[in-house]
Amino acid sequence: MAAQSNAIFSKSTNSIWIFGYGSLVHTPGFEVRRRVKGYVRDWKRVWHQGSTDHRGTLEFPGRTVTLEHDPGAITWGVAYELAGNQEQQAKTLKYLEWREKQYDIRERLSVYGTPDQLEVLSSSTNLPPPSSGLPPNPDANSIPDNHRSFLEGLEAHVQPLPVQNGEAQEKQCAKLQVESRAFGVEVQNPGAGDARTTVIRSQQSKEGASTGGSVSGAALSSAKQESISFEVDEDGHVLLLEDVLCYIASSNKDKNVNYLGPATADELALQIARAVGPSGPNWEYVAKLADAMRSMEIHDPELFALEKQVAQTMLHLKQQQQQMVDCRNEQLSEEASGRWQALREREAQFLAFHVRQFEGSNKEN
Q1: pLDDT per residue over 161-188, tens digit each?
Q2: What domain range includes position 195?
Q3: In its keyword annotation, does this UniProt entry include Lyase (predicted)?
Q4: 191 in a structural domain
């Protein structure tokens, strides 16, 4: 018999979770059932992946993030539970396979939180799902064979969601809500609506750090009240999810031709400041990721330092460009002035010549 999991959010047979640590954090682009803030352990976010399909080109690739093993490191992001039935989830996975086609590893990771950072960002979102599973792109169907086999293997484990009547649906929605106060946990629900935002904060005990707690989920109407429990390990981590799918770009250049590897901060900033791809400028990728971390109250000094350096580099490039424009205008002005002066001199010579001709003619007469 399988060991019982201590994860807060249990993974059912019809549940697929995706962990995003880059653009998926702020722009998932697919419909989700739940969205949970969390982090992965022993993985570090690095800017080693080249982007020729979204934030750069083959001639001038951009830089995007990937994960690399780093014992003791943590990387914050967002875990998404895919919404819909088997067919809808398959379309979402197909979309993700196209979107992440330059990332060669599909890793299964556990997602964690800390007692003071447990947060269900929303129980549902109104993000538009991909209508056909793939965006209107000529390369949309070019999913590598190894990725396609992985996708088919995933779909085989996704069971159709049972059809529910209104009351059962309401009860299921109630399970996703965390709205009341419970022992050791403070629950804040700042607003209502379909996309509920719930913040769970663990209170400190008199003896020191909190070692556990529970959260009561009150029914939206008359559904039975349920409870979610969590345990804090000796390092202060709370296991939120297990077996979460994560897309990673490896350093194996045989399998990942777009891997660029490490670079200095100056080199990174310059490349990011200049690169532009079909999805937009590379600097926007950095800015949106940094904004997303700030909105989740996550302090990422390396990311914020890169964001600042990219902005400074762009300002420097703009100043350089303006200096070049000014210099060129000055050159053009000098050239124009020189041409004007030469023209005036030729006119003066022409007039002098005709004056001499006229004076000579008068003397002869």
Answers
A1: 344 455 544 444 343 333 222 222 333 3
A2: 17-264
A3: yes
A4: yes
